[in-house]
Amino acid sequence: MAASRRKGKFLFVLSVCLLFSDSFYSPPFPCLNVLASGIDPSSNSNSVIETYSKNGNNFKETLLDKESENPDVVLLKKQQFQLEKLEELVKNLTQLVDKLESRFTEAPEKVKTVPSSSSHDETRDAERKKEEPGPPSEEGRSRSRSRRGVREEQEEGRDFEGFSKYFAVGDDTGKLYVFLRSGDVALEFDTFLESEGWSPVTAMVSYLSVYKNESMIVTGHENGVILMFRVWETLTGDEWSSLHVERVGKFDMPESGGSQINILEVHHVGRKRYILATDAGGKIVVFRENGTVYGTATPSRPPIAFLKQRLLFLTDTGAGSLDLRTMKLKESECEGFNSSSAKTYVFDATDRSKAYGFTLQGDLIQTLLLGDIMNFKCRLRSKRKLDLDKPMALHAIRGYLLIANREKVVVYNVSSQHYVRSGGVRLLFSAGLDEIIASFLHQQVSDVEDEKRMQTPLIASDYEKLIVSLGNGYVAMYHSKLPVFKNEFNSILWTSPVLFFILFLFGAWHFFANKKEVLTSWS
Predict the structure, then answer these.
(1) Looking at the domain assignment, is residue 353 inside a domain?
(2) pLDDT of residue 464
(3) What mean pLDDT is predicted for residues 410-425?
(4) Claim to verify: residue 83 and residue 145 sit in the same structural domain
(5) Residues 121, 80: one domain?
(6) Quick one: DSSP state of residue 183?
(7) Under 8 Å between Cβ of 126 and 229
(8) For residues 415 and 61, which has the higher predicted lDDT (pLDDT)?
(9) More confident site: 112 or 176
């Protein structure tokens, strides 16, 4: 009985253990199946991948937002964009320059009237400029050859670099030629009508018109006639403009008897312009722009050269002034001339109070003309003998003086500090006219030889560029590359009125400052 009970308890405990063992080992299997089904590609793989891709996109967007918020990155991108634009601009400009150069070389063959290089250039005052040496074109040679240029003047226009675009030359047949800087003839016309005959051009001046790209040219002639022409540019295409001319007036010298016109000058008073003409007898006639006579005056000695915009002039032994309001003259003798007599003058390009000239004896002189029309003083500063054959012509550019005769052109330095103080000039170099002609005419030197020796070469400039007439219708153009001395502070003239005025202001300030201290102490 006891054995059966023990056996029953053993069986009961064994069954309970088996039940607990089943309940303990059975749960892991369903759990593993669930996990397996969770990673089964056929069931939930798409949702897992989509979740990862969304998280990746969010991560990239976050990085881009951070980069866009970085100022260095933004600045770098802007600079890179600007560099790309600049590279594109440089490429376009290079193509444009090549196009312009090709058209510039082809232009004289395509256009009968030689055009200028720009239609937007403002017309400037009449100036004579020095150009780089170069051979004239065949067109220029054929039109200007066999004629002797008797007067030359730089004409009105300037290009975008500030250089004169044209210069005008008048000859002994009364014709006027307007040249380009390249030497080509841009314009050629007769100053007189067919019914009027002709007369050589003996004087010329040009000045700025009130209209853009337009200038006025005034010519004086051997028969005493003064003519005015209007020269202007018109646009003929996208890149070229042509030159036109029109005669607008004819001035008659009162009671001149057909005397030759020697000097023409333009004087500006505000917006008004007056034209001063001097004939061979020394009579000064002032014209308005419309051709009417403003007034006349006759000095005791004929004027040789006028100082621009100051109405002062030099004569053979003295100086004079003209009051434009009353047309009264004032004259005085130059100190130091003694028995000398000047034949020609030209004013210095830098210091307009200095003038260089020749005497009848062939001496080179330097004269000072100081003051204004009411109170002026003339004094001979230096004189030196020249070993040059007559006749001679001279002209001044910035820092230098050029003298030419039938054989050569001589260049003197007048800008160095030593020679400015001593009043002298220094010889630099000389060039023969034969060498100049042979440098670009080659086979035609013999044709010019006889004609060249019959006349004095003319020189014209705007104080930087030079135009030399070589005879027989040939003109040489040069651009000056000579160094120019600039005055330092210690070279200032300490006796100038400006210095005295500054000292006066300092003394007045010192006096009133001390006076104020005295009054303050007494009070």
Answers:
(1) no
(2) 60
(3) 67
(4) no
(5) no
(6) S
(7) no
(8) 415
(9) 176
Handedness of CA 29, 34, 39, 42 (dihedral sign): positive
HEC string of 105-170 equals HHHHHHCCCCCECCCCCCECCCCCECCCCCCCCHHHHHHHCCCCEEEEEECCEECCCCCECEEEEE
Last residue of a domain, one of 91, 110, 129: 110
**In contact, 285 and 327? CB cutoff 8 Å:** no
Q: Are residues 394 and 290 both part of a single domain?
A: no
Q: What is the maximum span of the chain, computed from C-alpha positions, in angstroms?
A: 183
Which two tokens mark 240?
A: 């070229």
Containing structural domain, residue 186 = 114-298
Q: Which of 93, 110, 127 is the last residue before a domain boundary?
A: 110
User: Which of 13-27, 292-306, 381-395 is least confident?
Assistant: 13-27
Task: Report the domain count for the chain.
Answer: 3
pLDDT at residue 218 is higher than 90: yes
C-alpha–C-alpha distance, residues 11 and 29, integer Å: 28
**Residue 489 pLDDT exceeds 50:** no
Strand positions, DSSP E, 302-398: 305-307, 312-314, 318-323, 328-333, 342-347, 354-359, 363-371, 376-385, 393-397
Mean pLDDT of 199-212: 87
Packed helices 41-69 and 71-110: angle between N→C axes, nearest 10 degrees: 70
406-445 core/surface letters (b: 16 or more CB in 10 A; e: else): bebbbbbbbbeeebbeeebbeeeebeebeebbeeebeeee
Same-domain pairing of 134 and 257: yes
One domain, residues 96 and 208: no
